[in-house]
Amino acid sequence: MMTDRMAQAGAAHVRTYLGTPTGLKQAAVHEIATGLKAVLADVFALYIKTKNFHWHMSGRHFRDYHLLLDEQGEQIFAMTDPLAERARKIGGTTLHSVGEIGRLTKVADNDAEYVTPEDMLAELREDNLALTARLRAVHGVCDEGHDVATASLLETWIDETERRTWFLFEATRPAFGGND
Question: What is the pTM of this model?
Answer without folding.
Answer: 0.87
